[in-house]
Amino acid sequence: MLLIARPLMHIGIVVEVETFEKGKFAFASMAETKLLITIIAKTTFPCCIQNKAFELGFECRSMNYLIGAFKPTCNISITFADGKSRNQCTRKSLMVALMNLNFGMSSLLAVGITIPLKKENGQTAMVPLFQSQENIVGKVSVEPIPGKKIEHNGVKLELLGQIGSTLDVVALEMYFDRGNFYDFTSLVRELDVPGDIYERKTYPFEFSAVEMPFESYNGVNVRLRYVLKVTISRNYASSIVEYQDFVVRNYTPLPSIDNSIKMEVGIEDCLHIEFEYNKSKYHLKDVIVGKIYFLLVRIKIKNMDLEVRRRESTGSGANTHVETETLAKFELMDGAPVRGESIPIRLFLSPYELTPTHRNINNKFSVKYYLNLVLVDEEDRRYFKQQEITVYRLPETP
Amino acid sequence: MILDGAEEEEKWLAEGIAGLQHNAFYMHRALDSNNLRDALKYSAQMLSELRTSRLSPHKYYELYMRAFDELRKLEMFFKEESKRGCSVIDLYELVQHAGNILPRLYLLCTVGSVYIKSKEAPAKDVLKDLVEMCRGIQHPVRGLFLRSYLSQVSRDKLPDIGSEYEGDADTVMDAVEFVLQNFTEMNKLWVRMQHQGPVREKEKREKERNELRDLVGKNLHVLSQIEGIDLDMYKETVLPRVLEQVVNCKDELAQYYLMDCIIQVFPDEYHLQTLETLLGACPQLQPTVDIKTVLSQLMERLSNYASSSAEVLPEFLQVEAFAKLSNAIGMVIEAQVDMPVVGAISLYVSLLTFILRVHPDRLDYVDQVLGACVKKLSGKAKLEDSKATKQVVALLSAPLEKYNDIVTALKLSYYPRIMEHLDNGTNKVMAVVIIQSIMKNNTCISTADKVEALFELIKGLIKDLDGTLVDEFDEEDFMEEQNSVARLIHMLHNDDPEEMLKIICTVRKHILTGGPKRLPFTVPPLIFSALKVWF
């Protein structure tokens, strides 16, 4: 087993890593410092990491440690002895695998948070759903494993709204604490004073009229999420933490003014079109209705598509990172039109995974939508015109 | 191995059919297990085969027919589905989620058919939406077949009067609008084919266009079947709109075919009542259109209509059919300076036939036509074109056959002048025809004037005309000709001896110009006629 330790801050730490068998993971130093350790592992992890060395950053807190951020740095090949379950895995399941490196905590107790669920249809996983200004009410139940008791220094419940980069995200959500997520909202309830828990204890809680101005968003580079976090602090052991995600969606009524988009564009002596979209603001289950009118056609057009594109930008200034995705590619026309032809548009948005437009959320990110009209000629040259639209979430009719 | 064009196409067609059947198989499975999602998925994939650009219309049609058959099964499924699971309105939306336009529109038309049948929306609304949305296909062949599909599935669902899909007050107009719009778009696509591709392939393109013409013409047929269209609607709306498209498309092939179509599918009664409009379009057509054939067709139909019953004849008079036709023909001949003589003459033959059926008593009309012919023939020497000659003979024979009386024909002032334009051989033939007509009908020619006129007509037999070549002399023919003249002389008779004398003198005058060869034939019958006078 090999390791390379690279100090981050000013403290030099030497870390030795033994074999990475499941359940055996020893670290030398326990100091409340952030460490960056590059691990080149020949492991028996039930997954294969292709040519990557990972940096594990973690926080050490009084003899215990938690895993923090997780970033790829260089390409190194790693193979695993366990061939049977060797498969490609996403970061997420890698983390799940690492999780199974039994830090010993979760086996001690089962922590459950229950909330009266607002079900969300169509989702594969049932997630509670809320709107801003709603009351979030429920109970936390802590149940020790039979025979064990928990001595604790207090039980607290936090409601957090967080924005973070998915590049840094560890899907080890349970072990997730600060790291690269930024809390824009934080509410606390102290559930219990220091004491012992011998048997199942239930703590009711209520957060009234919670301000959740931003909706949950799961993007390419950025996530905005809401989570309830239970923390049981202990003196001689690490805290026990449990998370429960919930989804926030905010609704916008029908806009009072919603102008159509009508524009004439073209290339001199080549192609002139006038396009028209019936609105500039569309809700998630709306229909884009419009038409394309050909004023001048001197090129040989093969076909015409309308794309819906999402542009997610994170960061600001020099550090702005933009990710563009084409969510829909809808063919409007097959064949070459002549001057005077008018081609109808009717594009239903419901089949596509759109979200509402997010503008400069907490100065951290934006999500914008564009209609991109694309004409392709016989020589596969593409002519396009992009137009921003606003997408919003309309309250569902009961 | 390099395949030639036809083999390549066969190969692609086979591939297309294979792909189609492959997806159809999975579609059937989905239909059997009531799996709407998969049914839509596989039907869309199946229809993607119709996106090909590689097939000529003839081969594309084969692929299309298979898709058509499969879509009938899908339509039945949709009908069942709308009763049990997904409403037809939801289905109508669902099929529009398909990303590729051609499959999407075929599916939409199929659901549209079910939608109309369900009566959950007025037929006119669904039809209007469908015919509009089909604009998305601008490729000529694919567009033509798609719209043809639309026409086929909507045929029995038009909101015609008396149909179960009848709508409100304007119901027939809605049906007409739908068909007219589909027709207009189809014609546009069809004409567009003419200008696609390189110049050297023009012939091939025209052949392909001809293969597709019935798809366009079918719309006119559908129009003619709409019960609710009465004469007024035809006159005010249907015909003007159709003609507008025909004239504006400025395409020779389309114009010729569609004019012919109009004449064939709509009732003759309507043609009579819209004669002016119909004829008015003719000069607006492309100069290369064979309009004379179109006019001839029209006149033939009208002539037949006139013969069908005596009750319709007054209508002809009322609409002044002859005047209009005559004018139209005159204008066409004037406009098409390069029209060969045979074309003009055949037009006049058609017109003459028309007159003889409709206005047999109007000798002045007949003479007018003959006069116009003379005008056309003037300036030329003898006719040499055998086709034109045939037409002239037909022109001259028609009155004879109709009237069965040479006396009537003799009243036609232009008749002899036309004969003058025939070459000598044909002239003699015509003369014999005249004589035969007299013999057949036992016509008695009883005045010297008539005899004079008659002998002028048949002068080709009486004497050697200028330019007769000695080589043309045929013993047998000559004998026959002179014998018929001899027989003719026997038909000349008047009980009044004075008149008879005049007749004999007239005949004598003419036959004496015949020369020694003829006299042995012609003199004896004259002597006998003379003797009859005195005995």
From TrEMBL, chain A:
UniProt entry keywords in alphabetical sequence: Cytoplasm, Golgi apparatus, Membrane, Protein transport, Transport
Topology with respect to the bilayer: Peripheral membrane protein
Major location category of this protein: cytoplasm
InterPro entries, sorted: Arrestin-like_C, Vps26-related
GO biological process: intracellular protein transport
Assigned protein family: Belongs to the VPS26 family.
Protein name per the record: Vacuolar protein sorting-associated protein 26A
Automatic annotation (TrEMBL), chain B:
InterPro entries in the cross-refs: ARM-type_fold (IPR016024), Vps35 (IPR005378), Vps35_C (IPR042491)
Topology versus the membrane: Peripheral membrane protein
Record's keyword terms, sorted: Membrane, Protein transport, Transport
GO CC terms of this entry: cytosol; late endosome; retromer, cargo-selective complex
Locations listed in the record: Membrane
Pfam families (alphabetical): Vps35 (PF03635)
GO BP annotations listed: intracellular protein transport; retrograde transport, endosome to Golgi
Family: Belongs to the VPS35 family.
Name of the protein in its database record: Vacuolar protein sorting-associated protein 35
Protein's organism: Tetracentron sinense (Spur-leaf)
